[in-house]
Predict the 3D structure of the following.
Amino acid sequence: MDFELSKEQEMIRREVRKFAKKEIQPLAAALDEKEEFSPELTKKMGEIGLFGMFVSEMYGGQAMDYLSYIIAVEEIARVDGSQAATIAAGNSLGIGPLYYFGNESQKKKYLPKLCAGEGLWGFGLTEPTAGSDAGGSKTTAVQDGDDWVINGSKIFITNAACSMTLGVTVQTVTGSRPSGKPEYTCFIVEPDTPGFKAVPMHKKMMWRSSNTAELYFDKVRVPGENMLGQKGDGFHQMLKTLDGGRLSIGAMGLGGAQGAYELALKYAKERRQFDQPISKFQAVAFKLADCAMEIECARNLLYKACWLRNQNKPFAKEAAMGKLYCSEAMGRVVDRAVQIHGGYGLMKEYDVERFYRDQKLLDIGEGTSEIQRLVISRHIGC
Amino acid sequence: MDTIVLIKQVPDTESAIEVDAQAARIVEDNLNWVLNPYDEIAVEEALRIKESLGGTVTLLCAGPKRSQDALRSGLAMGADQAILITDPDLDGCDTRGLAQVLAACIKTLEYGLILCGQRAVDDDLQLTGASVAHELDIPYISDVTHQEIEDQTLRCRQSTDRAHMKIKSPLPALIAVQRGLNEPRYISLPGMMKAKKKPIDTKTLSDLGLEPSALPQPNIRIESLKVPSSKRAGEMIPGESPEEQAANLATRLREMDLL
């Protein structure tokens, strides 16, 4: 067993941490307050290579292993959940499906710009009436000659309605399978396609400087060459995309937990009550000890899932466990971190307040905690 | 213009330093090592010179084998190649000895300008640049916060606490760079991947034709080493009015034998 990171992975952690501290940290609170997506910051993240980390150099990627990518997301999340969301969704949901399932001309057309961080891409899966129950999807695509005509809508789609958005992958129902269940197929839709509308969603509780969109498809006509993979591949593509995506959501939980824990530890050592730092009181110290322990567990579980993926071994169970455990561990860590901050933890002047809000998405997005438990329980034969 | 950047690997300034009191050394086991932040400024400046005038950037380090990670960071920033002089006999060297070793290697290279950090954040001696320039018998300019090169002439601004000086020098020369010269770029992930393919040439003293016994013996020795006591919490001086506070402050200073 070797728990040592490679020199390269250590360098990634160091450099991304430095970048996050200098470039993201000073802006995070204000962007959150204004609920503003920052193209400048996104482009800067692109310049240091945070998009396309696991993509081959042939398409402008960095050809790194999956753990390197997860470490980068973790380090961004340690400072700000919103920017980590832009990176995690950009890679796992935007770039991932195009890279893994796209044909050569689709990859050549879109990936270099996406990997350079010059553009973003959305993955349209969730619908207003189809969340955990993907079978309830109502967005359809009907063949008409060489074209396909898409009708329906999607909701909560990250990176899909900002000035940098170059397109979306949308999952549609294209018929039914012999079993009677719907047949799914994914299509690429560019923003200026007639009938397509992407509307940013506001008044969010968390991830306020990440771009979230509602997508509307009203007789949107795309050529057959915009199909991603083969007709009927959509379900399998979605499962594979979400398995990888879960690891990056896990990384957001892990990094967010680490960040909130460090804030709480620092505060507890500085804040004095009854003539001593509050970190000297066991009621506080034990909370911090629990945080440190749970973060260590979360990191080991998530990194193991990445290791399995790097080794091309099955990792779906561990990915679900990693996503679930990291998200919920962050939930417990931010709860303690705010408690340790006392009244100040309730104020926006203190970053821990933002971490507390940003955590909640992790229990819900990319498969709720309940769905993760369902996935795990099926894997263990229940 | 070909440039050479002198590199040192130092403990990360964020790591907690422990002292081995008996050996009068720091405990190195759990330290994170990084490229000296001032050397990072030197690498950045060398890269900018390369971007405007062409040429190559060579990193040079004399130190233990782990120093190659610092060289790798510089290569990931964009330097072309690196040389690591590593040899058990380097352990006994002080700055004069190291300067002779570095100079012996530099004499085998083509260069127009040598850059180094003004200081290393570990021992903070600020001697290496001057010592190497002395060995090579070339001009040395310290505390550089601006430089430009035109027609084989170097124009620098030297910034110290008391003065800004404009200095002109022929090339080749050696400059020690100070904070404020530039903001070093972040290492990009593609840069990291490229660095994996760049060469680090490892040399021993005998590769450079040096006899360890011929190097100067250190003329100072560290007898003991201690971490300075950490800042104590401030003390609030009570008082309702400025006058009362001033009186209380004076009393307190007298109690502390400071007045």
About this structure: Chain B touches chain A through 15 residues (CB under 8 Å). The mean pLDDT of chain B is 92.
